[in-house]
UniProtKB/TrEMBL annotation:
This is P-type Zn(2+) transporter. It is found in: Cell membrane; Membrane. Gene3D superfamilies: Calcium-transporting ATPase, cytoplasmic domain N (3.40.1110.10), Calcium-transporting ATPase, cytoplasmic transduction domain A (2.70.150.10), HAD superfamily/HAD-like (3.40.50.1000), nmb1532 protein domain like (1.20.120.520). Belongs to the cation transport ATPase (P-type) (TC 3.A.3) family. Type IB subfamily. One of its GO terms (cellular component) is plasma membrane. Residues 626-758 form the Hemerythrin-like domain. Residues 115-214 form the P-type ATPase A domain. The lineage of its organism: Bacteria, Pseudomonadati, Pseudomonadota, Gammaproteobacteria, Chromatiales. NCBIfam families: ATPase-IB_hvy, ATPase_P-type.
Length: 760
């Protein structure tokens, strides 16, 4: 505790305690105890006078005024023991206040103290230590084991183990692969790693965090300012009660006793401590609340607005299907497109390259690649002319036909984007892409409802149809598409009439809307610096479910602050009544008041701890949860194969479908069903105790049984065909089974992915 208390307050408290004890010893020895007790009173009287004058100069409530009057009264009335006890209580109260404040700010202070100061720059001569401010964009850096990543950059080593707890609150190190972006401020928990700087120290993630932490420490909540005003009003009331007690009884000591127990410490100390403790608790969970005013507003939020892309969704394009013309192989189409896209820095191009590598497709080096601004790329891959991008570029000037119209219709209805691929002068297919809903978004929205948010609104710059497709999947109350930054501001302004409003977003175009809301919430992990600066709350970890957690922390902090004030002031009021009627002497009153102060401050510090009702149950190891989701990623091509087979039954002659059906049956039997059986027999029994309750995975097991039944019926139908081509009735039944199996699998995978993510 000593490290959290300044030497001045510690020495002052020790000196006053020594004088108090010295007077007691003198009394026991038959000498006068007055000199040391008077010295203690005068010393703290000087301190109280200085503090009161400073507060009044800053136009703040003179919170030490009652203590000043009380100690002066003990000198006048020769109540030296009471005065010495009050002096000790005043000194120890200041020490306790400082301890509580520093304890509450511990997480914020730790963020400031661990800011990186040195970096190791790699040159031809080796690694040289340089100040972090000297690092330039493009520098090649070495980060040794246990060191802090100095600036934002790209990982050059094959892999790295990183402790990201300072930014995310997660205690388990994360494994990062070559090419992944590293945020400054995380700790290298593995062997030496090399990286390339993408930003200077001033423009890196941790520098922004430091700036926001400084704002958080400098801010003062309206609740605490209100407490100051109440304290100022409280002082005349106390003086009036003390005067009435003196006048009624004729005993000035009663007035002194009233002053002793009337110090508004519960109001002055408890509220700021609880607010700062809640801010510190949130910071440990990767939720940076910039000031007390933001925390109080966040605690009262009942209307939430969200930007779609990058907030409710991942903001990253993901391949969801491949549509090909007759005679074109889907994997070969993706391979050709990804090979060409290797030379592009466009985010969609990089997504396709990543997907092709995940499918272990052999990419070739393109030749003669040319980028057409706003359209896409053209070049040669393995001697074939390939175009990837817009429909106009990939069709090589050809006319649209029925196949193209059907693809465009699907994209419109399902809210998909597409990278059209042309090969050797004709349109060969399209890679359908979707901005995926975050795995934690549905659960986070449900948690927000339980936390008191009664209206949710989604804003998007996308077409209304695309926005509505996402909104329908999430169940928000309203959706507003095709909104410019100004349109988002108008929407936020309109919703302010419905209650205390919060706006969450991540992009530069969201910054005005964040500033317009009562509380702006920035997705700071991958969002723009503009949104982080405009936001009152910044989520430092790329998890949307931290938002309802932050809301609960704010609500609990405000509730504890109010509870401490009401209970503390209530106890002080009762004590004042006893003192006014002569049932509480000044010395006893001073001890009682100190007990009240300690109790309310300790209660305020409860805001540092997690809510007992929300304490996390046992979780899956993050590595296991990631591997389970990766298994589904590896099975995604199986789903595409089933969907393509179902559509192929419409497009081909009946004599051509038998090889396709045999191939699909083989993929299901060899890749899909073993995975589902392993989950049912080995994984689910392990998950059940973690989830808790009676048969917690019963509905998921029901999904397995449905998959097994559909796969068996499909296999029976295919076996029944033999070598004979299916008739129309058989084709219809096969199509139905394939589409039904595809739908059940996609829903089942989505449910499992959400479960794994929530258990992580």
């Amino acid at each position: 505790m000593g490290s959290w208390i300044s030497n001045r307050n510690l020495m002052l408290t020790a000196l006053v305690a020594g004088l108090l004890v010295a007077g007691g010893v003198a009394w026991l020895l038959g000498a006068s105890p007055a000199p040391p007790w008077i010295a203690a009173i005068v010393m703290m009287l000087i301190v109280a006078t200085v503090e009161t004058l400073r507060a009044l100069w800053r136009r703040q409530a003179g919170i030490d005024l009652l203590a000043l009057l009380t100690m002066a009264g003990t000198l006048v009335l020769a109540e030296y023991l009471a005065g010495a006890v009050i002096a000790f209580m005043f000194a120890s109260g200041r020490m306790l206040e400082e301890y509580a404040g520093r304890r509450a700010r511990k997480a914020l202070t730790a963020l400031l103290e661990r800011a990186p100061r040195l970096a190791h720059r790699l040159t031809a001569a080796g690694a040289e230590a340089v100040p972090v401010d000297a690092v330039a964009v493009g520098d090649h850096l070495l980060v040794k084991p246990g060191e802090i990543v100095p600036v934002d950059g790209l990982l050059s080593s094959s892999s790295a183990q990183l402790d990201e707890a300072a930014l995310t609150g997660e205690s388990v190190p994360r494994l990062r692969a070559r090419g992944e972006r590293l945020a400054s401020g995380v700790v290298n928990a593995g062997g030496p790693l090399e990286m390339q700087a993408l930003a200077t120290a001033a423009d890196s993630t941790y520098a922004g965090v430091v700036r926001m932490v400084e704002q958080a420490q400098a801010g003062e909540a309206p609740f605490t300012r209100m407490a100051d005003r109440y304290a100022l009003l409280f002082t005349p009331l106390v003086l009036l009660i003390a005067a009435l007690a003196w006048a009624y009884s004729g005993e000035p000591v009663r007035a002194l006793a009233v002053l002793v127990v009337a110090t508004p410490c519960p109001l002055i100390l408890a509220a700021p401590v609880a607010i700062v403790a809640a801010i510190s608790r949130a910071a440990r969970r990767g939720i940076l609340i910039k000031n007390g005013a933001a925390l109080e507003q966040l605690a009262r939020v009942n209307v939430m607005l969200f930007d779609k892309t990058g907030t409710l969704t991942t903001g990253l394009a993901r391949l969801v299907a491949i549509e090909v013309r007759a005679g074109v192989d889907a994997d070969e189409l993706l391979r050709l497109a990804a090979s060409l896209d290797q030379v592009s820095q466009h985010v969609t191009a990089q997504s396709l390259v990543t997907e092709a590598r995940r499918r272990t497709l052999a990419l070739s080096l393109p030749q003669g690649a040319q980028e057409h601004a706003g359209e896409g790329l053209r070049g040669r891959v393995d001697g074939r002319e390939v175009a990837v991008g817009s429909l106009a570029l990939a069709s090589f000037g050809g006319e649209a036909d029925a196949w193209t119209a059907s693809v465009l219709e699907r994209m419109e209805l399902e809210g998909l984007s597409g990278a059209f691929v042309g090969v050797d002068g004709r349109l060969a297919g399209v890679l359908l892409l979707s901005d995926q809903i975050r795995l934690d978004t549905p659960r986070a929205l449900r948690e927000l409802r339980r936390a008191g948010v009664r209206r949710t609104v989604m804003l998007s710059g996308d077409r209304q149809e695309i926005a509505e497709a996402v909104a329908t999947a999430l169940g928000v109350d309203a959706v507003l598409g095709e909104r410019s930054p100004a349109g988002k501001v108008e929407a936020v302004t309109a919703e302010r009439a419905n209650g205390v409003t919060a706006m969450a977003g991540d992009g530069i175009n969201d910054a005005p809307a964040l500033a317009a809301a009562h509380v702006g919430i920035a997705m700071g992990a991958r969002g723009s610096a503009a949104s982080s600066e405009a936001g009152d709350v910044v989520l430092l970890v790329d998890r949307f479910d931290r938002l309802p957690e932050g809301l609960r922390i704010a609500q609990r902090g405000r509730r504890i602050a109010l509870q401490s004030v009401v209970v503390g002031m209530g106890l002080s009021g009762v004590a004042m009544g006893f003192a006014a009627v002569g049932l509480l002497a000044p010395v006893a009153g001073a001890v009682l008041q100190e007990g009240i102060d300690v109790a309310v401050i300790l209660n305020a510090l409860r805001a540092l701890r997690s809510d007992p009702e929300q304490r996390r149950a046992p979780r899956l190891p993050p590595e296991l949860a990631q591997e389970l989701r990766a298994q589904h990623e590896r099975l995604h091509p199986v789903l595409e194969r089933i969907e393509r087979a179902a559509k192929a039954l419409n497009d081909r002659e009946t004599t051509d479908v038998l090889p396709e059906l045999d191939a699909v049956a083989e993929v299901i039997a060899q890749r899909l069903l073993p995975h589902e059986r392993e989950d049912e027999a080995q994984l689910y029994p392990k998950l059940a105790p973690i989830v808790g309750g009676f048969d917690p995975l019963g509905s998921m097991s029901r999904g397995h049984r449905e998959i097994f039944c559909l796969a068996r019926r499909l296999d029976q139908r295919i076996a029944a065909l033999g070598q004979a081509p299916p008739d129309e009735r058989q084709l219809q039944e096969l199509r139905r089974l394939l589409f039904e199996l595809d739908a059940v699998l996609r829903l089942h995978f989505a449910q499992e992915d959400e479960l794994y993510f929530n258990l992580e």
